[in-house]
Structure formats: structure tokens, C-alpha cells
UniProtKB/TrEMBL annotation:
Coiled coil: none annotated. It is an enzyme of class 6 (ligase). This is leucine--tRNA ligase. Its EC number is 6.1.1.4. It comes from the Eukaryota.
Amino acid sequence: MNLTHTKIQPFPHSPPLTHPTFLFSSRSLLPFPRNLKPAHVSPSFLYKKHTLLRYGCFGVSRSRTRSSISEVEAEQKQKPLLVKRAYPFDEIEPKWQRYWEQNRTFRTPNDVDTSKPKFYVLDMFPYPSGAGLHVGHPLGYTATDILARFKRMQGYNVLHPMGWDAFGLPAEQYAIETGTHPKLTTLRNINRFRSQLKSLGFSYDWEREISTIEPQYYKWTQWIFLQLLKRGLAYQAEVPVNWCPALGTVLANEEVVDGVSERGGHPVIRKPMRQWMLKITAYADRLLEDLDELDWPESIKEMQKNWIGRSEGAEVEFCVLDSDGRETDMKITIYTTRPDTIFGATYLVVAPEYTLLSSIVSTEQRESVEEYQDIASRKSDLERTELQKEKTGVFSGCCAKNPTSGEPIPVWVADYVLGSYGTGAIMAVPAHDARDHQFASRFNIPIKWVVTPNNGSCFESGKAYSGEGIIVNSSNLKVGLDINGLSSKEAAYRVIEWAEKVGKGKKKVNYKLRDWLFARQRYWGEPIPVIFLEDSGESFPVLESELPLTLPELDDFTPSGTGEPPLSKAVSWVKTIDPSSGKPATRETNTMPQWAGSCWYYLRFMDPKNSNELVDKAKEKYWSPVDVYVGGAEHAVLHLLYSRFWHKVLYDIGVVSTKEPFKCVINQGIILGEVQYTACKDTDGNYISADSADDLGEYLQENISEERVVKSGEFFVLKDSPNIRLIARAHKMSKSRGNVVNPDDVVSEYGADSLRLYEMFMGPFRDSKTWNTSGIEGVHRFLGRTWRLIVGSPLHHGAFKDGTLVTDEEPTMEQLRTLHKCIAKVTEEIEGTRFNTGISAMMEFINAAYKWDKQPKAIIEAFVLLLSPYAPHMAEEIWSRLGHPDSIAYEAFPKADPAYLKESTVVLPVQINGKTRGTIQVEKGCSEEDAFTLASQDEKLSKYLNGKPIKKRIFVPGKILNVILDRQNVKAGSIQ
Ligand code: ANZ
């Protein structure tokens, strides 16, 4: 997935907060704004809100930016290495990575035994950016790796592949700047990503690696396009694009910032161009309905529903009047979801790009309308539809007749109405729609109330009432319509019925979902397999037998200046012959968008080398659907919607056997940089507590190092002045803040197992969490303790003895209980993807095991098996030291024996003369005598009991021990 081409946005000025707060823009998780049409909103609208997973960071060591090499060296000389190597991870990890590679340990053979159950666990494959891996990547990858390893050990056939979403803008932009072919840059980046991923010990089947830029792969992307074309699901249309006259090129949405080009700041306008479109709207209903059967986060389902945006309403015709107020043949058809308000429609609005506009506009108004159209063409749809923005518009000079009231109403042109939604024209009801209300108030258009709130409350003056209610002022017997007194629902139904009867309208379902613009004026993408006859311009698909249609070599990637895509420069490639007619033809020079390759890659992993079919039917049937799909929430809409669309088309043509591609989707949380603490100071340099003023902006701010901070309740305060509360903030990692953590540095300092464990231990998998270096030191120490418990302490020169310290003794009951409790917890937590609490259970086990004199082999072996999905390198090493010649990867995962899970002790309250004085821990079934002995030995209870004459003991096994003292023989006042 490519998010790298969107610029990293430094986090805007953050409000002061008193306890660590996740400061990141999560608004993209909000439902798609009402009245905003998907096709008009740049993907960057979503992305800009979610910048973390753009991974636009570079090799910044640990959490600081170092300005020069000498500075780094000077710092290193002063400071010894932060941590002492807790165990020899630097020897173990490369050793086992080599072993896995040489032994093809994680290869999923082509001919798996299909009688066994399967588990397909997939990561959203990355865009191999020049920045390399970011600590955000291994979060999801470690989780899927744990699941893959766990399921393998449970006897499943596991498919756990990795590949590259490798076409994309950054490589092309780099090519334009430097002349380096995008393929070279991309392959270099892929190599780096691959070796970084291998260094983390992920159990991918690297023999199934795929890359969207390889012709053997995109052959099938092109094949799918041809199937869409055959079924009328791919078509050509004139669609506005972002055209930058100064650069002479079409820009992607993410290359346009506030109406100007990101590069150079030149004005960008919307210009219609011939484009390929995919008819995703034909699948809108199925994409909506099938969401119900998916085990996906509700938030994603909601976002998909909003994006599809199904609404039910009506189309109604308004007759255009001539300058004398007579009806003409021209009609303006509007779309409304509130037909009940039609008597309140006091004007119409058409979008500036409304096709009939030029034929209705009056001569006097033509110039101002054209001027307005020109200004609107420079605005993004987002700007146009923003509720807060003051509404603009011009009168068209013509009127239309409200078919219900019979009154003439003016037709306005305003950009808050979009040409591509509904019919591009609306009936404006200012009393009941906020935008219409703003507009009518500004241009002095009458406001007519036609709905009264159900609860009898009055209208708020100066505001629209947009709720439903009881209809008023809505009767015209001349046209045979009276809806007064009806509820909004009934009225809407009656208006539609009436409109259908008099031939002025009909019921209509609309979708916000737009057809998918599938062409890019770019070089670095899949060529679209279509040719055009030179004489007629007629288009024909390239023959399937000619696929792949490979991308021609090019030296010059700069835009042509005419708006023609760069591929038009490959003249000998463009010129071709139509094989069926033998006539000269030219090839399509637009390429596919990056979304194309990522739409179906999960299918190719099932059968990556098949040259005859996209995927073998039997293999697809066995592996489909993906059982768990993990990735960032920023792909909640477009990627998941586009791939669901392609999947459904492939289902309809019999290529796949399931209706949906991904059974379960999980979004991993975002990793934020370390918490930064700030203290406020007045001008005299005195610290001011952060809670002492509403506006801290006027105070000076000083960064406070972690050592000087202590937590006090919910807040953070200065260690030496606890009355000074600090501001604690966690920011998104970004290069400019210098808080980016590079996984390579973590691996070399602590090892891959520590990084894996830490990323899982930071917090619940789906939550956002802050990076904390002392946290990684903590898990590293845990691994060191585990190693020393089993292998022993290092010899004086730092090396470790061969073998382990385990013994052949039979385990004790207590050891078995501790182990099985740990097995039960770790298993339950992996199954529930609560990896952090699984680690806590293992930590508890190690703490308990340190108290044992001996470490029986049977216990330790089982524990190492539990540890192996999390820390596979250490587990393999210990496993081999325990005398096993084969990898641990396919050993059976331990099963908890319920016999050992029952609690063996109970806490027994002890009363003295009816008053509870303490508790004792006793074995279940312990006798009265034993309970009394324990109570007498208890530090707290003994002072009540020792040496006192006892009258009676009341003992309810497992419930209570009550000791009644003989008062007559006790000195007054000695107890009670
Ligand atoms: C009259 C009306 C009265 C409306 C009222 C709303 C409230 P959804 O639910 O998003 O589909 N509309 C229709 N086409 C539009 C366009 N191209 N650009 C901008 N707005 C458009 O919204 C449908 C409502 O949005 C329609 O119902 C229309 O305004 C407006 F009290 O019609 B309504």
C-alpha cells in the first residue's frame, strides 16, 4: 500500500494537555461527511489525516535527530552503550535466519495436504518507499507472524506471504528529478525492505514473493481489466482532472495543495479529459449488503456504508419559464431526499458545471455566470461543500415553476451543489436545509416553513429546522395535492405518488459512490491494454494472448507539456497494428492507478507462478478467503472497497469461489513518538503548574527530561516540585520532530526478538500507543532472564556454555500448575489477538520459575514452545540446545490440561470472637486443625490467639474459621 507519496504533515500546534495524550489526526476514521461526494474527494483527504503510516522517515537513530556524523561520534564516545547485551541475540538471530532460509522452513508447498485445515494470514503489502521500514510496519507484521506460527504449531496449513505494491508516484517523481529509471529505484527499495523484514525473523514464505511491477504479475491485472471491459464495467468518459498549465501536466489529488501544485505552487484548474472509468456503482448494493456477514471492525463497515452512501428520495421535474413567465419545453430535474418539503422550495440551484446551464442562462446574466463557473473550476469539492464557508452564487436570469405550489421560483447557480451527484440540480428549501438557509439569507430569497417539529417546539429564528415533523403550508387543490397534517414520511410518499401520477417525477435511489476513475497520466503504472484505430478512433481490447502488454523503456519521464501522458513519448510502442483489421492503430497511453495491483494480490499468493491462469481453481477454493487481514485503518475505505468490487466481479465470472475476499480485517493501532514533557515558566524563570492558567500560551515552555518527571495520580509532575504539573504529549513520529525510531537501530541494539516482543507488549494491538525506550529495555531484560534461567549465566569472557541447565526430574504439582496456567493464558490471548497480555503471562511464569531449585525439562520445553511465536530466534536456539535436531516451527503447540487449572488453595477469613481479624491461605479441603495452626502462625492473627484460652472453634471448610476465646480467662481489655 502506498501512502508515502503524500507529504508528511507536521502535527499542528497541539493544545496543552495534562496527561499523555495521543495526538494524531484520526478524523479519517469519522464517517464520510454528508453531502461530500466520494469521487470528488481526493484520497489525500483521507490520507492527510493519517500520516503515520506514510513511513516517510529516514534513518534517524533512536529518538533523536543527529545533525552530523561528528556529533554522533562525540556523543558515542561520551556515553557507553545504553544496555548490556542481556543474551547473545546478535549471534543467535542471524544463525536461525540462515537456517530457516537454507531449510525453506516456512515454504508452503504447492501440493499441501488439503485434508488439513488452512489458515491464510495476510499483511497489507507495503509500498517499498525509499525510507525503508518504519517501526509502524513491524507492529502488524509481528502480530500476523505470531498468528502464522501459532497456527502452524496447531497443525494448520498456513499461507503467510509477502510482496510489494511497487508502482507509485514517488519513484516516478524521483525519476523526473534524477533521470533514474523508476524500476531501479523500486528494486533497490524492495531489496532493502526484504532484508529488513528478514532481519526481524518473520516466517513469510519468500518463495511466493510477488511484486505488482513484474510483467508476469501485471499480465493478470491487465487480464482483469479486459474482463471488466467485456462486461461493460470499464468505459471511457470525459472527467475533470487536476490540470496545471504551468507544469503542463495532470496532477494527482495528493500533488495539489490548496488549489496550487505542491511542486512550484502553480495554479491548478479542473479540466475535463478522456478517462477510463470502472463501474463500481453497478455493485453498490452488493457491496453494501455483504458487509453484514463480515467479521470486520464496525467502524470500517460504517465508513464503507457512508462511502457508498445509499439514499432514497425522488427526482422531480421543474419546468423552466421564459422571460414572460410562460412554460417552456425545458425541464430541470432535481434530486431530493425530502420530497415532503417541496412546497417550501423557494428557488432552484444548479451546479456551475450543470450541462443545461448554458441553454437556460439569460443574456444579461451570461457573463457573470461564466465568470462564476471559472472561479468554481479552481475549487476542490471539499472547499465547495464545507458547511462553514460562506455560500456564493449567481442568478441564472431564469425562473422555473414549482410543480406543487405553481409559483415561479428563481434558478440560481451555486457551487455548493455538485455536478456529479444526483442530477446536479436541487430544489432549495431554506426553511429546512442549513446550506439553503445560509444561501437564502445572504441573497434575500424567501424562506417558507412547511414542517413543524413533532414535539411542538418553535422554530429557532435564523436557523433551518432540518428534522422531520408535521407538514404545514402544503396544499394546492389546483394540482390535486394536499399534504398538510401528514407526517414527513407519509407526505414524502404522497408527493412521490402524485409526481408519478402526473408524470413529473419518480422515486429514486442514489449513491454517493461514484464510478472509479481508472486512468492516470503517469509512466510508472500498468499499461491499459486497449488500442485505438487511427482512422475512426474506435477502441479495441488487446488480445488476451498478447498479454502482458509490457511497459516500454523510457529515458525521459518528464510530462509532455500538452497533457499527454509520458507514455506518448514511446512512439514506436504507441504505434501498432490492429490484428483483426490490419489497420494502423495507437495504444492507450494512460496507465492504471496504483490501486489496481493491490486489488487482487491476495489471490496471486495462492498460486504465484501460474502462467496459464490468474489462480488455479482448486488452490483458490482451498485457500479462500483470507482468514485474517491486518493493516492500517487508512485503507478502510478505498482499498478494501475496490478489492471487494473486483472480487465480486471475479466471483461472477467464476474465477473465485467466495463472495468476499477478507473474512476478518484488523487495524493495528498507530505508534506515536515518545511522550515529551514540557514545563511552563514565567518571565522570571519560575515554574508555573500547567493547571494554573487556562491559556498557557503566554508562558515560556521548557522541555523536561524523563528522569525529572514523576507520575502523580493521573498527571505528571516535577520530581523535585510535585506541585508543578507538566504538559505531556505524544506526537506522531515524523522526521521534522526528530522522534522517528528506526527498527534497524533497535534490532542492532536489542535484537529482533526484543523488538517483536516490545511492539506486542506496548499495549492492546488495535490501540494507538506511544513508543518508550525504557519499555524495550524491559522486554529485553525479560528475554535475558529467560535465557539465563534456561542456559545459565555467561562465563567470565561473556560467552555461554553449550546446552542448558534443565534437569530430567519429574515436575512438581506446583510447576505443572504454573505451566498450565501460562499455556491456557497464552493460547487464549493469541486467539483473541491480545498479544500484550499473553506476554505478561509468560513474564509471570519466568518470575515463578526463578523461585524453583530445578528447571525440569518437561516444563521448560513447553514454555519454550509458548514463547516461540513471539521470540522465534531465542526459542529455536533453546530448542536445539534442549537436544531437538529439527526446527521448533512445526512442533505441536502445548495444550492446557484442565486438571492443573483448578485453583488448589482458598483464602479463608479468620474471625476472633465473631470479628474478622485477617485471612489465611489454605489448601482446598484443609482440616480445622491445619487451618487453626496456620492462623496461629500468621503474624497478624497470632497476637490475638497465642497464649489465649479458647472456648470454641467454628470451622466451615473453605469458608471461615471463627475462634471464640474464653473471656473469663482473658484479662479485661486485652483484645477487642
Ligand atoms: C431538498 C431538501 C430539503 C433537501 C431539505 C434536504 C433537506 P443525501 O442524503 O446526501 O443524498 N442535494 C441533492 N443533490 C445535490 C448535489 N448535487 N449537490 C449538493 N447537494 C445536493 O442528500 C440529498 C440532499 O442533498 C437532497 O435533498 C438535496 O437537498 C441535496 F429540508 O432536497 B435536498
